Amino acid sequence: xxxxxxxxxxxxxxxxxxxxxxxxxxxxxxxxxxxxxxxxxxxxxxxxxxxxxxxxxxxxxxxxxxxxxxxxxxxxxxxxxxxxxxxxxxxxxxxxxxxxxxxxxxxxxxxxxxxxxxxxxxxxxxxxxxxxxxxxxxxxxxxxxxxxxxxxxxxxxxxxxxxxxxxxxxxxxxxxxxxxxxxxxxxxxxxxxxxxxxxxxxxxxxxxxxxxxxxxx
Length: 217
What we know:
Elements: E1 2-7, H1 14-27, E2 32-36, H2 50-56, E3 61-65, E4 70-74, H3 82-89, E5 95-99, E6 108-113, E7 128-133, E8 143-144, H4 149-158, E9 169-171, E10 174-176, H5 180-194
Parallel strand pairs: 1-5, 1-6, 2-5, 6-7, 7-8
Antiparallel strand pairs: 3-4, 9-10
Helix pairs in contact: 1-4
């Protein structure tokens, strides 16, 4: 999984870029997730609606579902990192495009500039991956115009290693790291057990196993 943060001031075109990059990267065969950082909070429902009432009542999590959509609201004690969000809540995407999270020093930044709004690079050199700008920029990093979607997708693709077979372990919501040896044992054991089951495709891409211990919960 590779994470790229699109950073820059408001109205520079970050959302526009992401919405055009998603279908381009999907067309190239990658699974893509998007995370938007809302520094001042957000609302998926309004005062008086059911989900708002559940949150106001103190629910730790609320889900809204329909035949075509699923949305989950979870109360956070602290601001989670994009990586922890992706690991806990997404199905291990190849690429995660983030809007915001400028302060997260672990993520490579694609800074978006726009004439008259933001004309100076603010990202640290060691964090900066590329620049997207509608004017010439003095930088030693790759620089693109906002409409060069294919070229921007090219450099993102160039830094992504195709995902190999892997297994993820989460216990009570926490991601548990496993070395290659342990992953291999888990993988071989699971594949060996499901081979005897009926209705299994010959080469499944994703296998999900959930284990719930008996108890009050």
